[in-house]
């Protein structure tokens, strides 16, 4: 199974699922959420990195039973960590009129928070780790996935490149 999200497009297993070209990420994400008929109001409080990761995982795990999801591990990586949210948080601190940074933004200043959002939504209790690499770590993910399976720590491993900075975003997730 594979999901790709980039430039206003969601592709799952080679088939177009949703497309909204020419919009900013927030508009695209809201449209994708509605199109996928999701029901998770907390989505709208998430930062953009979490929304991107959430949408990708929903496309792959959304229709599975809790039993099928329970042994799924998450290995995610990107190049910018949570820099998009970090910059928004820093801007709120630098604003002398509104110095009080929002705790709702601050909580997302770690990239692994998107894993927590996904684990809560799907009841995952397995490995979930977020790495920072210059590019998609194919061999690293392959060996880590094999280790998790061989030790009985996971039956399925979702490996994802989930990069978002400003209006540039790219997700590739597969198992």
In short:
The protein has 7 helices and 7 strands, in the order E-E-E-H-H-H-E-H-H-H-E-H-E-E.
Map the helices and strands.
Layout: E1 2-6, E2 9-12, E3 15-19, H1 25-35, H2 48-61, H3 66-70, E4 72-78, H4 83-94, H5 103-106, H6 113-122, E5 128-132, H7 138-150, E6 156-165, E7 168-174
Query: Are there runs of 5+ residues with pLDDT below 50, and where?
Result: none
Major sheet description: 7 strands, mixed
Share of residues in helices: 25-40%
Provide the structure class. Answer: alpha/beta
Order of helices and strands: EEEHHHEHHHEHEE
The helix tally amounts to: 7
Mean pLDDT level:
93
Report what the structure shows.
The protein has 175 residues and is an alpha/beta fold. The chain has seven helices and seven strands, in the order E-E-E-H-H-H-E-H-H-H-E-H-E-E. Strands 3-2-1-7-6-4-5 form a seven-stranded mixed β-sheet, with helices on both faces. A hairpin with a 2-residue loop joins strand 1 and strand 2. Helix 1 packs parallel to helix 2 and helix 2 packs parallel to helix 6. The mean pLDDT is 93.
């Amino acid at each position: 199974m594979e999901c790709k999200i980039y430039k206003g497009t969601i592709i799952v297993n080679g088939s177009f699922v949703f497309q909204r070209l020419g919009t900013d990420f927030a508009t695209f994400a809201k449209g994708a959420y509605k199109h996928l008929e999701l029901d998770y109001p907390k989505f709208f409080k998430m930062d953009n990195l979490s929304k991107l990761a959430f949408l990708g995982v929903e496309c792959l795990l959304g229709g599975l039973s809790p039993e099928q999801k329970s042994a799924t591990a998450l290995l995610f990586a990107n190049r910018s960590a949570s820099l998009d949210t970090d910059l928004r948080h820093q801007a709120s601190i630098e604003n002398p009129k509104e110095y009080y940074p929002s705790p709702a933004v601050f909580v997302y200043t770690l990239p692994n928070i998107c894993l927590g959002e996904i684990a809560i939504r799907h009841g995952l209790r397995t490995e979930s780790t977020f790495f920072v690499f210059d590019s998609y770590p194919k061999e690293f993910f392959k060996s880590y996935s094999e280790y998790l399976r061989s030790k009985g720590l996971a039956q399925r491993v979702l490996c994802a490149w989930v990069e978002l900075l400003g209006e540039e975003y790219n997700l590739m997730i597969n198992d």
